[in-house]
Predict the 3D structure of the following.
Amino acid sequence: MRPEDILAPTPSGVCCKPGAFHIDPTRPVKRALVTHAHSDHARAGHGAVLATQETLDLMRLRYGDGFAGATQAIGYGESVSLGGVKVTFHPAGHVLGSAQIAVEANGLRIVASGDYKNVPDPTCTPFELVPCDVFITEATFALPVFRHGNPDEQIAKLLHSVGVFPERAHLVGAYSLGKAQRVIALLRKAGYVAPIYLHGAMERITRYYESRGIALGELRLVRGEKKPQLAGTVTLCPPSALNEIWARRFPEPVTAFASGWMRVRARARQQGVVLPLVISDHADWNGLTATIAATGAGDVWVTHGQEDALVHWCASHGLQARPLDIVGYGDEDETDEGDGEAQA
Ligand SMILES: [Zn+2]
Ligand SMILES: [Zn+2]
């Protein structure tokens, strides 16, 4: 049996014919296995969805109760059999509830990573290395220029600026699901105890994180606060809000943006960001290549980003590799729509 007989790449996601399911399909299907709740991976309208409880809950927050015909929750390390194919979910370390999905049949194991990172994150279960024959990896930051470095240093940079400009407000653009909560947790870890302010679009997701036992300290909504009261404070908002009228309610705001893309200076400048914070929920170049090597996979399928460089790296390290042309996986920092409700 060839790997393609178990999981076939299609333009709308990988499809398992014998198991009759798709992984992270970008169009409605009968049965979807979903790695995590980011909107390009987790779409509404499937007949049935199998995912972790957190992913199902976050999908419900975003899309409402009727987001799928039926749902089934699965825990990390748990397996189910679908049409004789064994499916197991493992932590991906990307955001709360994120999973890699291992698919096994005829002694062959294929792991679909979804999005992942192999560095510590106080807001989600750490990435687990799953040995496999075929590894389907993301490639969001798959260029050698991308080295994310230590996020604590980026947080220190932010706190230094807050100390230097006590009369100004600090606005931190951060993806609403995962990044915002991680930045808050990193601020707390660095000893920042003051209330942290939230844009309304990230309220429900952040409260959900707290309900799953992730301590984020005192959080307040910006809504209703007067301008002078926001001096010296830190506010998390969706990246798009940084350049909106919404930002005018803050006293002389210093705009920051927490993203792996902030490694590229021109990109920060172009977005009007004065305080770029290189903090990413994706593996960087070293993380991707180290993970690929450690899985022991001889065959690597690359999707979701800069496929070519990673395919080339694999080939030069004696691994078979190919890009998957799946249309519809987005760049999360650019496509944030909050928790689904437009509110200020
Ligand atoms: Zn993601
Ligand atoms: Zn993604």
